[in-house]
Task: structure prediction
Amino acid sequence: RKEVEQDPGPFNVPEGATVAFNCTYSNSASQSFFWYRQDCRKEPKLLMSVYSSGNEDGRFTAQLNRASQYISLLIRDSKLSDSATYLCVVNRVYRDDKIIFGKGTRLHILP
Amino acid sequence: EAGVTQSPTHLIKTRGQQATLRCSPISGHTSVYWYQQALGLGLQFLLWYDEGEERNRGNFPPRFSGRQFPNYSSELNVNALELEDSALYLCASSLGGWAKNIQYFGAGTRLSVL
Result:
């Protein structure tokens, strides 16, 4: 089983809709979690950190479920500019520090 | 404030040659990370440097090496280049070790091996 898994998509979603995707992780020692966004042929950029209690930033909501070992990202009222690949990032501090990027979920917002 | 800068933007080499990629972190950041992103694939962790020391290494052969200088800038060296080394190489920096620290990425160096 891969340490971090994401549905590669693509998710094709009409503008204005709500979309959600999950990211599962296998190591329970994982300590911190992030969502990054990567536009085509560009570098990844931090979208938001994921806190245990869940957190919201405008149209974006991130949640962590430690019991089931997954994080989620919800995008409300999607915009054309939300089209990108969303990378799940898991930091683990267990014997050795390790950071693992998921392969990403591609999102296409359709006009 | 300047972000993470990488040079060169593009690099073309032939099989067997050596490539040197450079990265300057955000001012105040002591940790530098290197990643490889081959076309259509996810980011693969290569190396992590902090305070001039190599802290962790991904599953890459020894011909991938690097160093971090006293000013925290870093260099990635790839020896005996192979065709499959063609990829986007991304550098990121953060404040200290990685457990909770956000990484900020440079725009990358696109390496093409012919």
User: Anything to note?
Assistant: The mean pLDDT of chain A is 91. The CA atoms of residues 17 and 107 of chain A lie 12 Å apart. Chain A touches chain B through 22 residues (CB under 8 Å).
